[in-house]
Structure formats: C-alpha cells, structure tokens
Amino acid sequence: MSYISRLGSAFSKSSMFASEFFLDLYMYAHYCGISPFQDRRNKTYYKLIIETHAIEKGLSLANPRMLFGRKKITEIMKAARRYGIGSNDLPILMATGALQDYLALHRSAGLSDPLLDSIDAFLKDRATASAVLGSGGLRHYPDGMPSPSPEKAALLTSRFSCRMFSPEPLDAETVKEIVRIAQTAPSQCNRQATKIHFYSNRERIGQLLALQAGSAGFAETVTGLVVVAFDLAAWGGAQQRNQGYVDASLFAMNLMLAAHAMGAASCPLNLAVPHSTERQIKIVGEIPKDQRLVMMIALGRPADGPLKSAASPRRTIDEILTIRDQAVAAA
Ligand SMILES: Cc1cc2nc3c(=O)[nH]c(=O)nc-3n(C[C@H](O)[C@H](O)[C@H](O)COP(=O)(O)O)c2cc1C
User: Fold this and answer.
1) Are residues 125 and 164 in the same domain?
2) pLDDT tens across 114-146, in order?
3) Less packed terminus of the chain by CB within 10 Å, N or C?
C-alpha cells in the first residue's frame, strides 16, 4: 500500500470517529429528556417515574427519615396534575401508590404537617378522578429474601434491588462463586472484556460510594461493592464504541441473578459520572486507566427479618412490545 493510500485510509478511519461521535451527540441532544425538541408529555412521563422512584427508594430504607423528599413530592404532585390526575398511565399509578405509602408511614407515626395535608388532598382528587389505585410504593417480603423456586423463570421474577444489607459481609468464596456463575454471560466473539473489581473494606467502599452518589440512605450498610468495568483494548473502530457497555451490562445482570441464586442481595448503582469522577473512582479503586467503568453493584447478605423494596412497577406489555408481523402458522 502506497504512502498516499495509507494516509487516505488513516484519514478515513479518523474521520469516521468524528462522524460517529457527532451522530451520538446529535441523537442524544435532540431526543434526550431535557431537549426542547422532545415532546413535553413524554418528558413529564419520565420525570414522574424518576422522581417517584426516589420516593419509593426512600420508603424502602430500613429507617426512612421523617418528611424526606418534601420538594420532590411537591413537584411530583404538580407534574401529576399537569399530566392528568385521572390518568391510569404508569407514572400516575406509581406516584399515587408511593404517596399513599408515604402518607400511611407518617400518619402511623402520628405526624402532622402541611405536606401531608397536601398529599391527602392530592389522593382525594385522584380517587375522585379514577377508581384505580396506585401500584407504586413498596413491595413487602415479610419472611425475608424469597428463595428462588424451581418454578419457570422464578429466579428472574423474584430478584429485586435490595437496599437492606446485613452487617455480616459475604465471604470471599461466595463472591467468587457468584462471579464464576456470572461468567456464563454471553459476550461478543466470546471476548470477555468485562472486569469485576470487588471491595469489602468499609472505608474504601465509603469513598467509592461518595463518588457514585446514588446510595444515600443505605451507603453505610453496604458491606461489599462491585465495580463493573471493561477493557478498552478489546474493542476497535468507531462502530464498536458502545459494545463494551453492552457486554458489561449483560454480565452485570447475570451477576445480580447469580447473587440471587446464591441467596445474596444486590442493588445496581449507576455510574452516570463525568470523566473527572471516573478518573477519581479508578484511583480509589486501583482500576487500570485503560478500562471504562459501567456501573457499581452493592452486594452482600440481605438484612435479617422482613425486607422491603421499591415497588418499581413495570409498564404494560403493550407499551413496550410491538409485534410487527403476525405469526403465520406453518402449513
Ligand atoms: C444501571 C442501573 C443503575 C442503577 N442505579 C441505582 C442507584 O444509583 N441507586 C439505587 O438505589 N438504585 C439504582 N438502580 C436500581 C433501580 O432503581 C432498579 O433496578 C429499578 O427500580 C427496578 O427495580 P428492581 O431492580 O427491584 O426490579 C439502578 C439500576 C440500574 C439497572
């Protein structure tokens, strides 16, 4: 290959990097939840789910702080009224359920506050507007962590994000076994670029979770922490730029299911952080520079006794499944 054609090929490869990154930027900026080009109702839909889930999570803590989330709750009620208080769409069902549980918790503690009165009024308006009750709030596990039964798919359907951990950590052998089972996750060309970093030192876990910022209220109870990462070296070319995230996410899901199969509790933790924070996490966690971070997972033994978790209801199947072609019975 001549010098000119090598130069041309190098230029064309580099310009593809630029165009692929630009298209990522364009798609994201144009359609994301803060874009002025995105439909307002669509934005409220997601905003309501996100904000309500924060309340569900607060309720699911072992000892929720009284009157937590005052500002968020006021915004949820405002957004729900704007969306349509009589609607039976998921965000309204979630908000109603979470506010019902929030009110019940505070009333049973004998508290009175203008916030509680406004929730009361909101729920009355909701009851007048629709006969359907909410489905957000909490799921209860009075007998502790449900053990997966041999029933079809029970391992999958009984897993949940647990934010109530026992002070007794998992032993290293169990952690190893969980990761070994998780290695059954598929990966592109079986390249297995996912890396699992596990921490059990309380001080280091505290430092890492402070950089993560999604574990407020239960960070101090986390006895084991996983950082899911991937080796950049496994991927080449602009068109592969997201593939490490795909493989690592599949691995992470397998890891949480493996943990559940082993009777452990887990909670996925986002790493939607800027490069500067990612660098800090790598320093604290002694993670090589040529790995990208995907997410964290709190991993431990479930707390003894009754457990509760955010309800996190799912959308109806018709909202997410589009069968484009009707199945044709074989002749
Ligand atoms: C990538 C990812 C990041 C998440 N980040 C957090 C987090 O930072 N803090 C948290 O408490 N839960 C976090 N979650 C847990 C979700 O809230 C939870 O998976 C969702 O509500 C569904 O509930 P379930 O896991 O109990 O079925 C995260 C989940 C995923 C998949």
Assistant:
1) no
2) 999 999 999 999 999 887 777 777 888 888 887
3) C
